[in-house]
Amino acid sequence: MDGVEDLERWAADARAREAADSRVRERWLRAQAEEDASLAGVLLAFAERRETVVVTTAAGRRHRGVVTGVGVDFVAIEMPGGATTLVALAALADARVPEAGLPPRARATTTGDRAGRGALGVRLAEVLAQAAGQRPRIMVQSGAVSVIGDLRAVDLDVLTVRTDGVTGAVYVGLASVSEVSFLASG
Length: 186
Description:
By secondary structure, the protein is an alpha+beta fold. The chain has two domains: 1-35; 39-186, SH3 type barrels (Roll). The protein is built from three helices and ten strands; from the N terminus they run ααβββββαβββββ. It has a ten-stranded antiparallel β-sheet with strand order 5-1-2-3-4-10-6-7-8-9. The protein is rod-shaped and about 95 Å long.
């Protein structure tokens, strides 16, 4: 009988060691993924899961919607009404999934270890230049300044926006643009 009990004890010890080793491996892999995280990778993970996210810009503006694209230097957020806002990654303070009611340990961590895989290979300026041909109504946010009007042109380093007021055209330095919201026309 001692041989059977010894064998059972040995098997139980082996299972316990294997479970402990597995937990250590899982923690190590999670730590590695978090160390390799990139903001674009996190945003891509949100896009893949079609999760509603809240992004906050450095200026404190918040946008709630679904990430529909991640470019080289921007993220596209589709709002509940269908409007889209493009936020410059350089202006993004944080991104989070609102998970009201869940205890902190039950919330999933997005590691963003994708290193740009799946990102749109375009820049904000290229997307805006393409859109300019259709003269969309936009709101450009540049720091604390908002400009609302029709996007007329995108050149090397400037957006030309035709406003409704007396000022006519407003020229916005492309490098200062933190976000562009496409507004419903009319």
